[in-house]
Design goal:
heterotrimer; A mainly alpha (323); B alpha/beta (607); C mainly alpha (310); A: mainly alpha; MetI-like fold; 2 strands; globular; C: two-stranded antiparallel sheet; repeat (chain B); translocase (chain B); cell membrane (chain B); hydrolase (chain B); transport (chain B)
């Protein structure tokens, strides 16, 4: 187990390093943030001054060295645009994104699991076929477009739910969250469902496939021959085996939810870190882009680790081992 | 006879395939009396397993239907609603299946898989259920039962899992046990243990047993009465003695004549073909005598000396070698042209790895292999190509060993064309010729492998092997996956080909009875080593090594008059895994007869 | 010798003697055409492809020729007529662009980007996967570690970063999509190649001393194709969706390139005022395209599922 943790930590560090080099070098090669930041009327002297103040006159490896040294002490640089620590900017917006992703994940599981199990148990039934048709549709719906359609229908036409912003928040341990106020819930409903739609389909499909496959296995037949009630066979014997592939997928998909929040946040004007990164890319705000990347690498590594540990708990056949 | 426990009358079971109802069991009728063991025997497609599933009503309700009457202790199982079966299954009728490796849920603890039955049918709970579970595991002779309750199935060997399955099936003292090929997936010594266990428990419980099997040896060993099924119909039912003594139906006779009986070869000095049975009349034609094919005058075609093949087991971050599987450990033997040498042993004994090491499908770790004068281990690319032409392999699973996407004509032609033996233009004629030699037709060459039955596929594999005109064929469990009657035909074909082409066979098998039938010489393998090697008659009639004796004793004999109660040791098959610093001891052999060598036990060697 | 316990396969055995010697490719195609949903998908995809290829010939207007646009026709509802008498079937956008024409041209870009990126990613990924499985050992472990790490990052994130570095353009978005997708193909091919390599027919080929290259390309690769085809179909759909998403976010294609994502994005600001069609119809076209491809993929997955092979 400790060997396993060590190898995972090592892998995360290597990934962080490689990513930072690639992105730092890449960003350096294209475009000059100064062009974006300065007004076209700036004099050459003002230009030089700005370049020096951001340290952009140094050779790239020196710049990277400075970045690395600062990064190790927890300083990922100041945003060119906001002139605030990039790390701070992102951490400030992170709770909103995580809240959105978590709400979407809960929705995906709460809807996807029962529908998937049903479709797996009665693969030839009419309802199951309808569920599968829905899942193909959900799989194919462009998130950004269905988000717009949802705004059009539920916010503009019907006027049931607000179309943008986060609504009232309550501080929970100092973190502002929308989930605990009615207004907040009304605001998060559309964006969370929008984000969840793709994942609902995914969970349905994986659950259905898992149930179908598990039902064919010998131990299910043996469980029937033991005279167990069908409910126990499905809810204990089948479901526990089906959960195993699902856990890996959920881990990967939590990461993808956080990343895809970029789209949902843009449409629903949700003040999360996805909106920030899109804006930063548009103006080539390097420190923010880099900081966002570093944070997501760490975040995904933690998620993957959690998935592996969960996996080894659910599946006795898995033993965590270095490499 | 007292009232039967189970009475099956006119059972017809149909499946819906592509919208059509097709019957797979037709008008089957038989009874099982109290405390009686009835075997239902047949080959694949005979409907024997479907019959068992029909009794338990385990077939999918939408796609299968059963008609007729199945009376269990007087009540018709087919009549009531399906829910009612829940109170019968696992409670009054227990059932065990073929695959112990997959019968248990891999992610639930053994304990909970036992106690759920006790809770369901006997209303036991908590500590009570647990105590009963321990008692059940004790009864099926699982050591330290209490600790093992908290373990998962993966910590149990195949034999141990089947014991757990039996414990579960008998948890509620059922009146009837249905055992569907319960020992087919097990090694022969483990099979003997499980058969003894079932017999013992049956006497203790006073229950009846319905035993589904394809193995006539097991039938002779265990059943009071036998029901023979063929293509969905019961063709014959009688006491087991009567069936074996004077079977009436041609199919029963064909089936029995295709079953090799261990010990029946006494007095024969050459391999023997299986007799042919006329399926219309049931008349048995005695097999033609086999010619003497062994070229004792010429130097051996294959010479193996001190062959070692080990597989490293790596662990940890640095992938250090922490141990090795000693799959093949210091074995030596020779094989002459026209000779059949069998390597026999249980799973994990290294017999298959030996065969694969000969042509470096697995890279040997030490020793020498001389093939017709070529040094296999030192051979470069082109020399190895030449060697592999001379040694052809036939594998166990004919479903697997043909590429599913290549037409069989191409599959047979490919090696010949690659090796430049024929041109593209000549190939079809040569392929047709080869197909006819193995009893198929040249017109079949446009077909894909999935269009053939298992026996036909194995013939195709043989044709492909013959295409390169080899001197030696390594047959790795080549007939093990085939039905009894098909197996007999393929073996007859192999003996024909040996006579015609002077082929040498290295016949790798776990099936002692088949080995006795077709070998000139036999080598018994255990944990990667040869423990005994010699002429077939010597090894089978005067086995010297304790393992050889144990192996022969464990084989069920297809003759109910030779039935015996055996004292079976409960030990498991050991693993050839050794730590990295293990030094294999040097083994010595003693010649106990002409060409008959036995490994000397360490204590003898030291003396 | 084991009796198959599965009733369906059990009963199918009787049909084995029938002689349908069609090649696996034809069998798959036949099964695909017999599935009504897949057939609908094929027909729609075919129509959309024809429409996209022939867009310059059949579109009423070249939506990117500014000379043909009239700002006076801006934001007309579907079915409206222009000053010159032309009917705007699906309405116009804020610049007076005929949406029907814009969608046809947008489909061109979407299909080009989707298919090109999938084809290149497939070629790279399949080669890496096959090589990895063939090489084994440390090379395999190393390559698969890279694949695993990359797959632990969502595609959209990688695409975002790449486009942040590369800037906008058709070639750049294709490159970004290739980078995000090759790993899926590599893992699929490597996975099936490893399974196939252990199967007895490969042992048989080796024992007949067939050359390694022949075993790899003639025996192993064709057997890896079914899962690869399924993955590729689904991935094309996903690539098209990803391109549209990135363009919608304003970091995919430049405003001068016709793209469905951009059209949706353009209509975004008029949505609240009720001019829904500017965003709605381009998105609907995108949805129909993706659903159709996924219908084909879903059917292929069922047909090519190895469990169904006899």
């Amino acid at each position: 187990m400790s060997g396993y943790l060590f190898s995972r930590l090592l892998q995360t560090l290597v990934t962080l390093f490689v990513m930072s080099v690639l992105v730092f070098g890449g960003l350096h090669m294209v475009g000059n943030p100064v062009d974006v930041l300065l007004s076209p009327t700036a004099t050459p002297a003002e230009r030089l001054e700005v370049i020096r103040s951001f340290g952009l006159d140094q050779p790239v490896w020196v710049q990277y060295g400075i970045f690395l040294r600062n990064a190790l002490s927890g300083d990922l640089g100041n945003s060119f645009v906001y002139n605030q620590p990039a790390l701070h900017l992102i951490l400030q917006r992170m709770p909103a994104t995580l809240e959105l992703a978590a709400a979407a994940l809960v929705m995906a599981l709460a809807l996807g699991l029962p529908l998937g199990i049903y479709a797996g148990l009665r693969p030839n039934g009419g309802l199951a076929k309808a569920i599968m048709a829905f899942s193909i549709l959900g799989f194919s719906l462009p998130t950004f477009w269905i988000g717009l359609v949802m705004i059009m229908v539920f916010a503009v036409q019907l006027g049931w739910l607000p179309s943008s912003g986060r609504g009232d928040t309550v501080d929970v341990f100092g973190v502002p969250l929308s989930l605990f106020t009615l207004d907040g819930l009304a605001h998060i409903a559309l964006p969370a469902f929008n984000l969840a739609l793709f994942k609902i389909s995914l969970v349905i499909r994986i659950t259905r496939a898992g149930v179908l496959e598990t039902l064919q296995l010998d131990f299910v037949r043996f469980a029937r021959a033991k005279g167990l009630p069908e409910a126990r066979i499905v809810l204990v014997h089948v479901l526990k085996n089906t959960l195993i592939p699902l856990i890996t997928v959920i881990g990967l998909e939590l990461g993808s939810l956080i990343a895809f929040a970029v789209v949902t946040e843009t449409i629903f004007a949700w003040p999360g870190m996805g909106k920030l990164i899109i804006d930063s890319i548009a103006v080539l705000d390097r420190p923010v882009i880099l900081a966002y990347l570093m944070i997501t690498v760490v975040m995904f590594s933690v998620i993957n680790l959690a998935v592996d540990i969960l996996y080894s708990i659910v599946d006795p056949r898995v033993r965590l081992e270095g490499n | 006879m007292a009232d039967p426990v189970l009475s099956v009358q006119d059972l017809t079971t149909s499946f819906r395939v592509d919208g059509q109802w097709r019957s797979v069991v037709r008008n089957a009728s038989f009874d099982i009396g109290p405390k009686e063991t009835v075997a239902v025997v047949g080959e694949s497609g005979s409907g024997k397993s479907v019959t068992a599933m029909s009794i338990m009503r385990l077939l999918p309700p939408g796609n299968a239907r059963c008609t007729g009457r199945i009376a269990f202790e007087g009540e018709d199982l087919l009549a009531g609603p399906l829910d009612r079966m829940q109170a019968i299954r696992g409670n009054r009728i227990g059932m065990i299946f073929q695959e112990p490796m997959t019968s248990l849920n891999p992610v639930l603890k053994i304990g909970s898989q036992i106690t759920e039955v006790l809770r369901q049918h006997r209303g036991l709970d908590g500590a009570e259920a647990e105590a009963e579970a321990v008692r059940l595991l004790d009864r099926v002779r699982i050591p330290s039962a209490k600790q093992r309750l908290g373990e998962y199935p993966m910590n149990f060997s195949g034999g141990m899992r089947q014991r757990v399955v039996i414990a579960i099936a008998l948890a509620c003292s059922p009146k009837l046990l249905i055992a569907d090929e319960p020992t087919t997936a097990l090694d022969v010594t483990i099979q003997a243990q499980i058969l003894e266990l079932i017999k013992t428990l049956q006497e203790e419980e006073g229950m009846s047993v319905l035993f589904i099997t394809h193995d006539m040896g097991v039938v002779a060993e265990i059943s009071d009465r036998t029901v023979v099924m063929y293509r969905g119909e019961v063709v014959e039912k009688a006491t087991t003695e009567a069936i074996f003594r004077e079977a009436r139906h041609p199919y029963s006779r064909a089936l029995l004549s295709a079953v090799p009986q261990l010990g029946a070869m006494a007095g024969q000095d050459r391999p023997l073909r299986f007799p042919r049975v006329d399926m219309a009349t049931g008349e048995i034609a005695p097999p033609p005598p086999t010619a003497d094919t062994v070229r004792a005058d010429a130097p051996p075609v294959l010479k193996v000396e001190n062959l070692v093949t080990r597989f490293p087991v790596r662990k940890g971050l640095l992938r250090r070698v922490v141990g090795r599987i000693h799959a093949v450990e210091d074995i030596s033997f020779e094989l002459r042209q026209g000779e059949t040498l069998s390597l026999v042993g249980e799973s994990g004994c290294g017999k298959s790895t030996t065969g694969r090491s000969l042509i470096r499908l697995e890279e040997p770790s030490g020793g020498t292999v001389g093939m017709d004068g070529h040094d296999v281990r030192g051979a470069g690319h082109s020399e190895l190509t030449k060697i592999r032409r001379d040694v052809q392999m036939i594998f166990q699973d004919p479903f697997e060993s043909l590429n599913p996407r290549i037409r069989i004509g191409e599959a047979i032609a490919e090696p010949m064309i690659v090796h430049g033996l024929v041109s593209h233009r000549e190939a079809p004629a040569r392929v047709a010729d080869l197909l006819e030699r193995v009893g198929l037709s040249g017109e079949m060459m446009q077909r894909f492998p999935h269009e053939f039955s298992g026996g036909q596929r194995q013939r195709i594999c043989i044709a492909r092997a013959l295409a390169l005109e080899p001197k030696l064929i390594v047959a790795d469990e080549s007939v093990s996956a085939l039905d009894v009657s098909v197996k007999a035909q393929v073996i007859n074909l192999m003996l024909d080909l040996q006579e015609n082409y002077g082929l040498g066979y290295l016949f790798i098998s776990h099936d002692m009875a088949v080995v006795e039938r077709i070998s000139h010489r036999v080598a018994v393998m255990y944990l990667g080593e040869i423990v005994e090697i010699g002429p077939r008659a010597a090894v089978f009639e005067t086995p010297r090594h304790p393992y050889t004796r144990k192996l022969i004793a464990a084989v069920p004999v297809a003759d109910p008059s030779r039935r015996r109660r055996r004292v079976v040791a409960g030990d498991e098959i050991r693993s050839p895994y050794r730590p990295a610093d293990y030094v294999a001891p040097k083994r010595l052999y003693r010649e106990v007869g002409e060409g008959h060598f036995v490994q000397i036990h360490e204590s003898e060697a030291a003396a | 010798m084991t009796e198959a316990s599965e009733p369906a396969s059990w009963a199918r055995r009787g049909a084995e003697a029938a002689p349908p010697s069609a090649s696996p490719f034809r069998q798959t195609l036949g099964a695909l055409l017999r599935d009504p949903l897949a057939l609908i998908g094929i027909v729609i995809v075919a129509l959309l492809v024809i429409g996209a290829v022939a867009a310059p010939q059949i579109a009423p207007q070249d939506p990117y020729d500014l000379a043909q646009l009239d700002i006076m026709d801006g934001r007309l509802a579907p079915g409206s007529q222009s000053m010159t008498g032309m009917v705007y079937l699906l309405g116009t956008d804020d610049q007076g662009r005929d949406l029907f024409s814009a969608i046809l041209f947008g489909l061109r870009t979407s299909l080009l980007v989707g298919i090109a990126s999938a084809a290149i990613a497939l070629a790279i990924g399949a080669s890496v996967g096959l090589f990895s499985a063939y090489a084994g050992g440390r090379t395999d472990a190393f390559l698969m570690r890279i694949v695993d790490i990359q797959l632990s990052f969502p595609a959209i994130l990688i695409a975002l970063i790449f486009l942040a570095i590369l800037g906008q353009g058709v070639d750049k978005i294709i490159l970004a999509l290739v980078v995000t997708q090759w790993a899926y193909y590599a893992r699929t091919v490597r996975g099936s190649a490893l399974v196939e390599r252990k199967r007895a027919y490969v042992d048989a080929a080796r024992s007949m001393a067939l050359p390694d290259r022949r075993i790899l390309f003639r025996h192993i690769l064709p057997n890896c194709l079914p899962p690869l085809i399924v993955v590729a179909t689904m991935r094309v759909a996903y690539a098209i969706m990803l391109e549209a998403t990135l363009s919608f976010l304003g970091i995919g294609l430049p405003v001068t390139e016709p793209s469905l994502g951009l059209l949706v994005s353009n209509g975004y600001e008029y949505l609240l005022s009720g001019d829904y069609w500017i965003s709605f119809y381009p998105g609907l076209a995108l949805l129909i395209l993706i659903v159709s491809i996924n219908l084909i993929g879903d059917s292929l997955r069922d047909i090519l599922n190895p469990r169904r092979e006899g």
